[in-house]
Every structure is written in C-alpha cells, then in structure tokens.
Amino acid sequence: MSGKWRTRRARMSIPVVAAAALAGGQLTAGAAAQTVDQDTARTAARPKFQLPLPCGQKWWTSTHKGHASKYMVDMINKNGKTQGTPVLASAAGKVTESKFYRDAGNVITVNHGGGWSTRHMHLDIRSVKVGAKVNLGTKLGTVGNTGSWTSGAHLHYQQQLNGKVVQAKFNGRTLPVKWKYGQHYETSKNKCGPEPPKKYYVVTKAKTSGYTSTNGKIKVGFLNKGKNYVFCTAKGASKKYRNTTSSWWLKTDLDSGHVNKWVPAAYLGKGGGQPKDTKGKTIPRCK
C-alpha cells in the first residue's frame, strides 16, 4: 500500500505549507513549514495528544517524500471504512481555522495553548467554526477526500509547536516515521474512559463475609469459597481463619452483588504475608 490515500506532491495554498517550493521534483519546507527537533519541542509543555479518531480504532500511519515535513502524517483505517469516520480533537483547545482550500480541501486547526496546535486536512465535512471551544474527543468533522491534492480518502494530520511541524506523539508515545502504509498502526485511546481494573485470581478456602472497609466492623454480603478475582490488597485489622492470621485484606466484587468491598486475606490460608495470586504474583497494594 503505497500509491493511494495520500496528500499528493504539490504546492498547497494553506499557511502551513505556503512557503514550500518544488526543488528537484519534491517539496522543500520554507520558513512556515520548518520542523523542530525533539529537544526544542520538549521545552514547551506538550498536551497529552490522542489519536484524532474514535476509541479502539486502528489506523495505519505514514508520511511520504511529497510532504513538506516528514513529520506530517497521513492516516487510513486498518480494519474498516476510512471515509466518513469522525475526526476528533486530540486535546482540549480552541478552533482557529475552519476553511475550505482548493488544494487541501476542508481544513480544521485547533490551538491547544502553550504554542501547540493540530491541523486536520481533506475533511469531508467541518463540524466546528472558528472560535469554538473543544474538549478531547469533540467531533471536528469527518475523514474525507476533499481538495485537488489528495489521491484517496485519508486524514492528513499535523502537530505543531509555534507554527512548526514536530514529530507527533499519541498517548505519550512518539509516532515513528514510516514511509508507506502497512508498516505501523496506532490504536486510538481518544475518550476511551478509564481502563477496567486488573484482576488477580485467588482461591478462598471457605465462604467469607465482605466488609465496607479494612477495619472489619461492618459486614456487607459474602464471597463464596473457590476461585475468585481481586483487584488489590491493603493492610487493616487482623482476621483469623483456622490456623492463618493476617492483617491483609483483598478488594473484590462480592458474590452477593456488592462491588469494591473487602474480604480478609486470611481466608486464602497462605500465612500472614502480602497475598499472592494463583500464579505466585504478589497482588499490588490498592492506591
């Protein structure tokens, strides 16, 4: 996949590449389209940008020699339809450009403060106007194929610092520079919500009461004997089960329907040390 879904090699009229000039058949960046090395980019507080596409979707990313900067990114959907997919704000900010250009098509630019901005080109539609305040995940438009300098539906995307294109980062990770599709894809974490807590599996030796806290005073429901999952562990009041006494407690969802409650780790029958799961891994302390 190398010949389709790209911004073509040509002079664009939009400000970011207005100073580009053809040299030896390729675009070379002028003052308005210069790149910034990563040490310079780190001098400003970069927002924690997310992929500007719906949560969970996977998108191939690529640049090519026709771009004024190798850090300009073209994206196509890895598993589904590209055209018409919502384009979302990578971080909170304010729309400073919402305009149609003959060559770049529909363009949206968002100012994120601190010198940082993002640009989105070739959109099918623009859903926000200049001056609109947006949050992470706000719909800006949809992926399209507008403008004369595109060879197929894709999203052309840039992260800029003080007007200069820099190497993009998504979810805190630097996007590698790839020169054709099929070499690297990103999975969107845009507005995915909190990740579910990790589960650790243990075996309780008997049915036990659940408690509202690790002081072991107020009972709420029960946890059955057998294999159960827990989320984390904490210290509290000592409890005894047969020959095992422990001051460790386990946070879990009870079989009675109560969630995020506490059961004594003594019912694991494994001594008084910090509890471990069935694979021998130490269960982390609750934060």
From TrEMBL:
Pfam families per record: Peptidase_M23
Signal listed as a keyword: yes
Keywords: Signal
InterPro entries noted in UniProt: Cell_wall_metabolism_enzyme (IPR050570), Dup_hybrid_motif (IPR011055), M23ase_b-sheet_dom (IPR016047)
Signal peptide, first to last residue: 1-31
GO molecular function, one term: metalloendopeptidase activity
Domain M23ase beta-sheet core: 82-166
Annotated protein name in UniProt: M23 family metallopeptidase
